Amino acid sequence: MIDMSLFEITRTNIVLDGQKVNLPIEGIFNHEKYQHFIGVTYSCSPRFINQFLKGFETVEIVVGIPEESHLQKANAEITKITYEKQLNNVLESEPPKFFRDLSPENQEAFQQQKFKMWAASIGYVIHSKFYLLWNVDKSNTRLIFGSANLSNHAFSNQINQLEEVLIFDNNDLFEVMKQRYVDDISQVITPYFPKNILNVKSRKKVNTTNGIEAVILTSDDLVKLKEEQIKEKLDDITEKVSVGVLPIQIYADIKELPREQTELMRSRQDQLERTETIYELSKEIVSSPTKNPRFKNTAALTKSIKKKITLKIIQQAASADIPERPILFSSPNQRDILLDNSGLFIENPLDKEKPIPYGKKATLVQIQESFKVIHKLLANYETYTLNYEPEYGSRIYEALLYIFTAPFIYELKRQAKTVESAHDIPQFLFLGGNAGSGKSSLLRVLSKMTKVSPECLAFVDYDDILPKNEHHRKSKIIQQIISWIQEENVAPLLIDEIPNEFFTKETYGEELIVNNTNHRGRGGDPFPVFIGTTNTENYSLPERAARRSYYLKIDKPFDEEFRGKTNQAYNDLLKTITTDLYQDFVLRFAQKLDEEISIWELCEGKGKIDFLYYTREIFKEYYALIEQPLPVFFPSRRFDDSQESNQEKWRKLYLGSSREDFYYQPDEQLLIFKITSLDNNLPLRYGEVKPSVLYKKALPPKVVIGSLDSMDIELYADRFFEWIGVENPYKKKSWLKKVFKG
After folding, report:
1. By CB atoms within 10 Å of each CB, which of 23, 305, 318, 511 scores lowest?
2. What DSSP character marks residue 558?
3. Phi/psi of residue 726, each to 5°?
4. Both 705 and 616 in a single domain?
């Protein structure tokens, strides 16, 4: 075997005037030596601009096509592909999101037109890649060719991605390529950002440390910008047709797009919705006459765009009675700990155009009083709950840690090295409790501790999401939840009394959790977490959905003998709750994120990330600050109640009346269970879904042999009994164990 340690692999091969050199990124893009920059590239990241281009006096960047090759495509096909790609880019709000992630200084530079960013016009693909740098009198010029895009990865020698960077200083080729840019490329480009986002007066702003105002974009802003930019893209086509840069045939090419719609029906649902919008737009925006097709007049065009954007982008349930959600924006790029700015913002009731930074340092007295409230909450559980144990109190505390961390969950997902590891950071928390266990009361307490808007409900009852007379109400409730959890509003979504069907019907809870988690991948845009309560017997999720969610079993009932005292203690507690600790916490956690914390080495024995690790650390700092030891009920680890719930389900099944339906095959050491027998014995217990289906979903793949679709399922005997925590009764004991039995 070859010892790879003997080899030194150069990932980014930098050649300057024919000589291999080792230059840092800031040395390649030296803004002290060169004041002006033009870049033509496949892709560019806000981070790269923020780090390496901010020092230039002028910057122009042209972004081409980063993903798929369009070589050997006919012009008609290029038109269709670029039309779809450009409009899809708009519908995904990529340009505004890119602008949002720029530093305030760079945002201002784009608004003042010192920096400019372009995209290829619809109908053209720019496959070029080169960079031009020069100083004021052009006594120093630099031309860069190669494969590297404007990203940190491309110019890093630490990433296993081989790149070529060829640099020519003060070379005649500089003027050749500069002229290429002026004569050709500049004729087939269009502004990357919507015009209105560069309009300083019309944007929402907050002050930063250096006095520069930074732009904040809400979900409503993004919808409006989509409408505007689609119109701008189409106007660009009309203009280029009028001057001969694009052929008049482009209108007919776009008109043909609906015929190809079915070919994309197999793509992801969210991608499909955006694609349908593009196709439907293409039907309406071109005038009816076939001889001289044109885009409709401005009024009709605007109406068509607004109609389609409204229908496809804002798919809220058709009811005016939807409960109002509190609003909490997240903009990490505007985070400034020195100004007590956590990167979170709430709406300003006096001026909605000026969001208010959320977060405030608490005094020592306020922190002490807040922890008195937390300890009183746990003391109430200990006093009035039947069979209370400290471990039970830890689950209550864990729910508190989760809701405190909620606005930052999406940022933690961004740190994931793989999509699979990102699944360990759940967007969904379920609190399972029996009747009388106080799960709704706990939800109200958590809501009040983290309240950001006095005008909104503390939480929403699942049955109150839509009016009772709503047509197709059950499926629309799921659609409304999907709309909420796909918002960029990071205020947690709190829902009480989630019914059985949410967990048992595959197209409800299971698909909602799995599809949304898979769509989120490793974070990306802000999103809210979902915290819901349900009865313990209702909770049942298959392995793939359980892996992507967090379940805390809070099922011990309060003692009926002390009902009056329990209610009084709860009401007294509510009166003392403030948001002081929460507002202080968001500043401390934001500071942890600014320190570029990494949670990916903090795995436990079961392999899951303790995504609340730094929340626990902050709370430990609080205890040190108030000079108190960690209480016995403080949760030191994440729980795995979902797995334990499934184990308990099968353990009771095996040890109970269904034991006679298990058959052991000693030769193969297999256990066979006639699972259809459950449908005969328990016909009504789980409503519309057969009990056998629920029990199948509760089995982990490691214990199952073959398929779960047959009447009899085969299980690995040793693995199954180890999983349910029961000694294998079929396993032969050694003669020593028989001798010393008992």
Report:
1. 318
2. B
3. -120, 135
4. no
98 shares a domain with 66: yes
Q: Tell which of 281, 313, 345 closes a domain.
A: 313
For residue 352, the cross-strand partners are none
Per the domain annotation, does 234 fall within a domain?
yes
Residue with the bigger pLDDT between 626 and 216: it is 626
Q: Which two tokens stand for residue 271?
A: 């991608």
Q: Does residue 442 register a pLDDT over 90?
A: yes
Total domains present in the chain: 3
Question: What one-letter code names the amino acid at 137?
Answer: D
Q: Are residues 620 and 665 in the same domain?
A: no
Q: What is the pLDDT of residue 574?
A: 92
Identify whether residues 734 and 619 lie together within a single domain: no
For residue 499, the enclosing domain spans: 356-633
Between CA 66 and CA 693 the distance in angstroms is 45
Residue 738 pLDDT greater than 60, yes or no: no
Q: Tens digits of per-residue pLDDT, 134-186? A: 998 888 999 999 988 888 777 766 677 888 999 999 999 999 999 999 999 99
CB 57 within 8 A of CB 107: no
| CA 698 from centroid of its chain's CA atoms | 27
pLDDT of residue 424: 84
User: In this predicted model, which residue has the larger pLDDT, 85 or 361?
Assistant: 361
Q: Per-residue confidence at 432, pLDDT binned at 50, 70, 90?
A: confident
Residue where one domain finishes, among candidates 285, 313, 341: 313
Long-range contacts: 624-629, Cβ < 8 Å, 24+? 625/364, 625/367, 626/364, 626/367, 626/368, 626/371, 628/371
* 35 and 133 inside one domain: yes
Task: Give tens-digit pLDDT for 286-295.
Answer: 766 556 777 7
Decide: residue 588, CB within 10 A, 0-12 exposed, 13-18 middle, 19+ buried: buried
Residue 459 is encoded by which pair of tokens?
Answer: 């939480």
Whether residues 53 and 143 share a domain: the answer is yes
Residue from 510, 550, 506 nearest 531 by CA = 550
How many CB atoms lie under 10 A from the CB of residue 325? 18
